[in-house]
Inverse folding.
């Protein structure tokens, strides 16, 4: 813009200079011509008056001292006298414009430029009384000739004029543009600029407010988007149509900490399933896949987004489905185990009942068979109760907590298991200090009961089971220890799984369902308790439930 303003001002000054000089030349030329014509007219009249008597000698005398040229022409154009040339040698002047005009009108005048335009000759002629024409002419430098003579000075003046025009144009450009260049575009209404800029400044102010509002809204949405994606447990990746990573949230960066979440999609992960899903989405089709990484299972879902032109952008969701697959696998295993566990006692019941129905059994064996049916039914009922209890714990139905004193609860469990302990020749002990926790009484009682029941079932003859309560580091605990057969190190991580049995033959003898320790595990999770297991083969097992510190 500065160049355009400077060029406009400089061009204006240059055109003004050229026009002014041209007009001055025309005015000077016109003035000189008019003065010369008036002089020649006066002189021609004086000479005509002096020679009115027809005295040719007077005319010759005047011509000899006169600086300009005097010519006397007859009515037919023949030159009668010329003070600069021999009249006999001169051509007929009848066709000369000034002569012809003087013969016709009485007065004639004309001017001629030389071939070089440096000189101009002026002619003035009047018709005398005798019909002859007296002509006076004078040659002077033309305006062009004067210019050519003074050309060095003229060039110098023109250069100086151009320099002055350039300086003035530069200064005016700075003056004109300074208020515009120094405009405060952030607060346009505070500018002291031209009045003509007022509509523009008001529009800019409105536009600034609109842009500020839009930027604020964009920042708010960006912050909201960042907050949402940062809180997402699922991974989210956005790809451009060229396959470049535009965005990757915290979950994705945590999943691929050693890979780059910038650049092309190949820099993020080189898993074959991941590459297939992303490439299909970039090709314009939705895709699904499954990927395993670091022992975890992830579901990949990529959606195609139509972009400008021929390409497609893509959105990828990465969801950790490890727990879901484990839960599905556990559900299938649970269903299979429940079917097996239910089928076993039902088969026994049906078998004994069929024998009794067909009258095959002897009368003295009916009581024994009925006892078998009853024990299998009790086993079936226990299994169903454990399944129902475990299902309720899985559902996590809200049950109000209440203060529960653990030492008294251990006494209740001991009373329930006294008969079974006596049958197995096991001694039950309750010791420790009273301690209270907040929880569900029935669930806590069932947890301690299952631990003590297992301790009796897997104990040695004349062994002992101890239920101990107290506090360690201000945290309540319940500890169940026995002198039984112990648990092998390889089995210890799995004893809390559903239907898992260390010794299946022994479990069948004791009537265990394989759900007791699983109920303990789910109850501990409900009460935010920690389970510590210590066991040595042939020496016994110690399981401790540590509850959170009381608030």
């Amino acid at each position: 813009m500065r160049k355009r303003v400077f060029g406009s001002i400089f061009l204006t000054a240059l055109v003004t200079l050229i026009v002014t000089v041209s007009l001055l030349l025309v005015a000077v030329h016109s003035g000189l011509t008019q003065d010369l014509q008036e002089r020649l007219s006066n002189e021609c009249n004086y000479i005509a008056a002096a020679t009115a008597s027809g005295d040719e000698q007077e005319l010759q005398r005047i011509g000899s001292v006169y600086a300009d040229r005097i010519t006397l022409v007859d009515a037919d154009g023949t030159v009668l006298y010329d003070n600069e040339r021999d009249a006999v040698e001169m051509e007929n002047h009848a066709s000369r414009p000034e002569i012809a005009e003087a013969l016709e009108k009485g007065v004639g005048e004309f001017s001629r430029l030389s071939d070089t335009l440096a000189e101009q000759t002026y002619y003035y002629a009047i018709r005398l009384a005798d019909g002859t024409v007296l002509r006076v002419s004078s040659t002077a430098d033309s305006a062009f000739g004067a210019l050519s003579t003074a050309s060095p000075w003229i060039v110098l003046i023109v250069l100086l004029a151009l320099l002055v025009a350039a300086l003035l144009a530069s200064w005016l450009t700075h003056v004109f543009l300074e208020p515009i260049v120094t405009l405060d575009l952030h607060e346009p209404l505070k500018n002291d600029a031209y009045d003509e800029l007022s509509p523009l400044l008001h529009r800019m102010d409105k536009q600034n407010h609109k842009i500020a509002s839009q930027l604020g809204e964009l920042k708010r949405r960006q912050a909201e988007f960042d907050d949402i994606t940062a809180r997402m447990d699922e991974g989210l990746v956005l790809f451009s149509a060229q396959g470049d990573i535009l965005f990757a949230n915290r979950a994705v960066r945590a999943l691929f900490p050693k890979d780059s979440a910038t650049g092309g999609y190949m820099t993020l992960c080189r898993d074959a399933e991941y590459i297939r899903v992303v490439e299909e989405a970039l090709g314009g089709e939705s895709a699904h896949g499954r990927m395993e990484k670091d022992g975890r299972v992830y579901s990949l879902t990529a959606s195609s987004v139509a972009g400008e032109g021929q390409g497609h952008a893509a959105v990828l969701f990465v969801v950790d489905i490890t727990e879901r697959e484990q839960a599905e696998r556990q559900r299938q295993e649970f269903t299979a185990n429940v079917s097996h566990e239910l089928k076993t006692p039902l088969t026994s019941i049906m078998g004994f009942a069929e024998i009794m129905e067909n009258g095959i059994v002897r009368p003295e064996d009916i009581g024994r068979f009925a006892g078998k049916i009853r024990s299998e039914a009790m086993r079936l009922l226990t299994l169903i109760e454990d399944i129902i209890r475990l299902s309720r714990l899985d559902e996590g139905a809200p049950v109000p907590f209440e203060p529960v004193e653990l030492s008294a609860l251990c006494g209740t469990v001991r009373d329930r298991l006294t008969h079974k302990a006596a049958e197995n020749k096991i001694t039950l002990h309750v010791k420790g200090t009273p301690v209270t926790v907040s929880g569900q009484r029935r669930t806590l009682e069932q947890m301690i009961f299952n631990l003590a029941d297992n301790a009796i079932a897997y104990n040695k003859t004349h062994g002992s089971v101890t239920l101990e309560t107290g506090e360690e580091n201000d945290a309540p605990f319940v500890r169940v220890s026995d002198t039984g057969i112990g648990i092998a190190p390889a089995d210890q991580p799995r004893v809390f799984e559903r239907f898992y049995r260390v010794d299946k033959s022994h479990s069948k003898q004791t009537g265990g369902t394989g759900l007791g320790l699983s109920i303990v595990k789910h109850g501990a999770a409900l009460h935010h308790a920690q389970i510590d297991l210590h066991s040595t083969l042939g020496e016994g097992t110690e399981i401790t439930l540590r509850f959170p510190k009381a608030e």
Notes: The CA atoms of residues 241 and 309 lie 10 Å apart.
